[in-house]
Every structure is written in C-alpha cells, then in structure tokens.
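Re: [ENG-882] Designed sequences occasionally contain unexpected residues at chain ends

Forwarding the minimal case from QA. Structure tokens:
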C-alpha cells in the first residue's frame, strides 16, 4: 500500500507534521517511514469515503476503517492482515489522532476518546511459567561465576519484568541499590520508568555487580553496560538468547523458555495480588489494552 496517495492539503500537512514529531521524539528513520505509511493509508481511506476534514475523524469512521483493514486482501500473499499487524496499525492511527487533537487542546497519551479493539487471541501468550518452574530455572544457574551472572539476568527479565532490549541496554548507573530500584530510560514506549527490586532480586544483582562483573572485565575496560559476556564484552541479543535457551534445556519442563515468557510470567504472577493498573505501571505499558491479557492468563492458570 506504499503507492497510495493523498491529495487533500490538510491531510498532507498533518502527515508531514506527524512525521516531524516522530523524529523529534527519537524514532528511527525506518520507524518514521513505517508509521507515516500506516497513517497515510488511513488518510487515503478517508479521502475515498469523502472525508475532507480532520475534524470529521470520529469513532464511527475509525471503526469502519479497521473493519475494512481486517478484510483487506494482502498484496504480496494470500490472506488478510494478522492480529499482530493490526495492532501495530492501531498504535499508529491512535498516536496520529492524539497528535491532531493536541494541536487544538492539551491531550495526553490514550486520551483521544477513540478506542480501537483488536482481537488479540492469536497473539496473546498461551502459557506462562508457574512459580515452581521459575525456581527450577534459578536453581539451574548454579553458583559459579556464569551462574551468578545468569541469576542476575533472570532477575532482570523475571524479577523486574524487563523487555529483552531493556535488559541489554541497561547501564550500571541505572541500578540504584540504595533505593532498591532499576531505572529504565531506554524504553520501547519512549517513557522512562523506575522498577522496584524485591529483596531476592537485589541480592542477585548485588552479588553479580560486586563479585562477578569486575572479574569478567579487562582491568583497563571502561565498559558500563550491566550485562556482559565472560570475555568482558557487552552482551548482545544472540548471546542473551543462548543463555536463556541453555537454562531452558537444563530444566526440561516441556516449555520453551524465552525472555518474553519470563516477562509474561511475572506479570501474571503479580496480577494475582495487584490491580491491573499497577501491573501496567510495573511493565511500562502506556495503555491498559496491552496489559489486559494478564487478566485472562491469571484466570486460566489460577482461577
């Protein structure tokens, strides 16, 4: 749909301003391109329906558009859009509508009054680790240097619920042991947050920081990344994946453990004792829509 064109001047100008806003917020060129194209398709659809003013965008128009998207055939292969793609498209359209409204009034994230509901049943996680399975995972780490480091990794991914990329980008300066929290500055949502550490999580983090990390580093190294390899280099995505894969094979519980599964698991476990709004805050979600899957998982696993 990249060849679609829009001709109404207010639409063109709004799209250009939206792209500039994305750039100023730190979005990469590829993300600006992808998000702008999603919005462009939305505006093209409105043009085809005779909509000529941004003020005419309302819940009814948005509902009609996403009903159209759900059934629109793909250009490159058979079938229609996956729920995952629809969710990405939803995010772009909502942020654009908020941007347009913000030109006339002060409005925050998720306050446009427009709701777009996508059936996430195909993309929602189907399973989690139970608490005893998480314990097995920690036990599988062992007490040698790599084992202590791996416990620190699990403490970030499960104990703090960090996203994979957040853990990899974490700097030692963002670990506040005095206040017992981890500061996440480089977040997927571009919103910083502070994540509390439980006593056990903090113990694992401290043992790695004070007794292991310095031994893995070269004496002349000035590397400040929290997660490093045994060779003293910054850990990358592939190495982190191999660590989790190795631990998953060790416990052999019939589930494939991944970084994201650990995040899903802690969110579900916390929701047994916390309201959904607090779980969303812990995870760094800006919309409750993203967090509601854990209500389903909690009910499925714990009733």
């Amino acid at each position: 749909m990249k060849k679609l064109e829009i001709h109404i001047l207010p639409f063109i100008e709004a799209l250009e301003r939206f792209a500039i806003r994305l750039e100023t917020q730190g979005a990469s060129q590829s993300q600006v391109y992808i998000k702008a194209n999603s919005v462009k398709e939305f505006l093209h659809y409105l043009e085809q329906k005779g909509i000529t003013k941004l003020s005419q965008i309302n819940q009814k128009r948005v509902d009609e558009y996403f009903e159209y998207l759900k059934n629109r055939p793909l250009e490159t292969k058979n079938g229609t859009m996956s729920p995952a793609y629809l969710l990405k498209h939803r995010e772009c359209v909502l942020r654009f509508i908020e941007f347009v409204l913000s030109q006339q009034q002060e409005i925050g994230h998720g306050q446009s009054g427009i709701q777009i509901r996508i059936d996430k049943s195909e993309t929602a996680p189907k399973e989690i680790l139970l608490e005893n399975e998480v314990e097995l995972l920690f036990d599988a780490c062992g007490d040698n240097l790599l084992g202590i480091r791996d416990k620190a990794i699990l403490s970030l991914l499960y104990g703090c619920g960090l996203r994979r990329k957040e853990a990899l980008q974490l700097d030692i300066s963002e670990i506040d042991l005095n206040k017992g929290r981890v500061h996440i500055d480089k977040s997927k949502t571009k919103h910083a947050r502070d994540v509390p550490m439980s006593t056990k999580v903090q113990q694992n983090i401290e043992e790695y920081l004070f007794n292991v990390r310095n031994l893995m580093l070269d004496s002349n190294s000035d590397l400040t990344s929290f997660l490093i390899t045994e060779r003293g280099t910054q850990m990358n995505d592939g190495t982190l994946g191999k660590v989790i894969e190795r631990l998953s094979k060790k416990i052999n519980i019939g589930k494939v453990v991944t970084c994201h599964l650990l995040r899903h698991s802690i969110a579900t476990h916390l929701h047994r004792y916390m309201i959904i709004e607090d779980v969303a805050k812990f995870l760094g979600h800006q919309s409750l829509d993203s967090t509601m899957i854990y209500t389903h998982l909690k009910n499925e696993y714990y009733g």
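QA comment: On inspection the terminal residues look reasonable. The mean pLDDT is 87. Proposing we downgrade this to a documentation issue.
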